[in-house]
Amino acid sequence: MKALLRSEWIKFRTVRGWVVAMTLAAGVIVGLGLLPGQQGSCGRSGPDCVLPVGPDGERVTDRFTFVNSPLHGDGSITVRVTSLTGLLPPAADGGEPRPGPVPWAKAGIIIKDGTRQGSTYAAVMVTGGHGTRMQHDFVHDRAGRPGAATPSSPRWLRLTRTGATVTGAESADGVTWTTVDSVRLPGLPSVMRAGLFVTSPQYAEATREGFGLSGASGAPTQATATFDGVDARGFDPQWTTDSIGPPPAGGSAPVPVGGSALAGGVHTVTGSGDIAPAVAGATGIGATITQTLVGTFAGLIIVVVVATLFATAEYRRGLIRTTLAASPRRGRTLVAKAIVIGSVAFAGGLVAAAIVVTLGQPVLRANGVYVHPATTATEVRVVVGTAVLLGLAAVLAVALGALLRRGAAAVTAAVVAVVLPYLLAVSVLPVEAARWLLRVTPAAAFAVQQSTPEYPQVANLYTPALGYFPLAPWAGLAVLLAWVALALGCAMVRLRRRDV
Predict the structure, then answer these.
(1) 282 assigned to some structural domain
(2) For 432-441, which contacts have Cβ atoms below 8 Å and span 24 or more sequence positions?
(3) pLDDT (tens digit, 9 = 90+) per residue, 187-239?
(4) Is 52 among the domain residues?
(5) Do residues 302 and 433 both lie within one domain?
């Protein structure tokens, strides 16, 4: 096997065009990744884009209207939410704001470690379209009873602190209570802020021309809730209204920041923003390290073309007979070709991805784009995963070349199998069709480049075009690996059963 590998390596490096092309593939990934394309306003005409940090170290969005009072030690607060309404931005053709609320508008009770953004909290709430929820520390979410809060069907909510434990409960009549969740928040100070809150996240929608995805639009939204039956136990409420976080930015909709009013025992609270992990995309801010690897698909085209030609060139010139005569075990010859071209593609991809992920982030920041930080482990996984993607794609192309034996047909099949599904998913197909395509085709391996999670409790356009994929990173690579194994198996069967 060692001699076969050496022989295939010599074949590759003696064809200058192949060497130049593989070098060009790595160069394209680096060049497109470092081009000053995406622009932002952070630190320029806009804000500094410094996001608050949550209790677990993640960047968060923490912006809402808070009608609150000091809570010394243990205690509870009970309210009845009688309505939750809202305003959406005007339609694309203009006009007045549309009635809401958005599905993840939130209104309820919260216990929070002061009014500092990012501080620990626990909250029980009604939402615009996801029923009752219990959430804490931004990333944790537990569902309660479905349904909306309306004057004909109000919701009673209760939040109780006992030491470091906070329990949220709901009721339809204020008599029979059901626990939504009970969470432990270690290190809570003796004095917390407790009260009513309302917030409403950014609205976004995909904009299309015909069948293709052309972009996204959105703007801040507003929610208004009415509360009555406020019952504080264990403390004497002295209500103050705070607007947590800066006013929402972006969009042109006339959406007020928020406020509160008290009349006849009824609190009316208006808010805009969200209490949730920060995300990149249409409803979030900035970009992720995935955007630095935008050139991967272009480099991949070059890789699969070279890999297929590496397999078909000997058939075109008739040299395959000599190769198989020198090594009668035909399967080993194919494996040697796959190892050589796969290793070359992996090495080039590793260097290119490492350069882009390292240097691409400063380029984006210099362009005023906020870049969501990623852990070292995530950066390593993205870099190595991109190299594995290129290496496996090269092996798949070799297998297709050996199976089809004609250069044009093999190149077309490789591009259609690996590259075309990705291009269709990010630029043409509707979101659900794109996500289906990226589950079953070799392009599923692009999931290895996703660097930030999807949060079910955060409204966003989680599309491939924005760096979100339907499969977990290694699951996506596993799909590509399955296609590689299938193609190699078929190619070996044909190589063994049919003469050249």
Answers:
(1) no
(2) 434/463, 434/464, 435/464, 435/469, 435/470, 436/470, 438/464, 438/469, 438/470, 438/471, 438/476, 439/470, 439/471, 439/479, 440/479, 441/417, 441/479, 441/483
(3) 889 999 999 999 999 887 665 544 444 455 567 899 999 999 999 998 888 89
(4) no
(5) yes
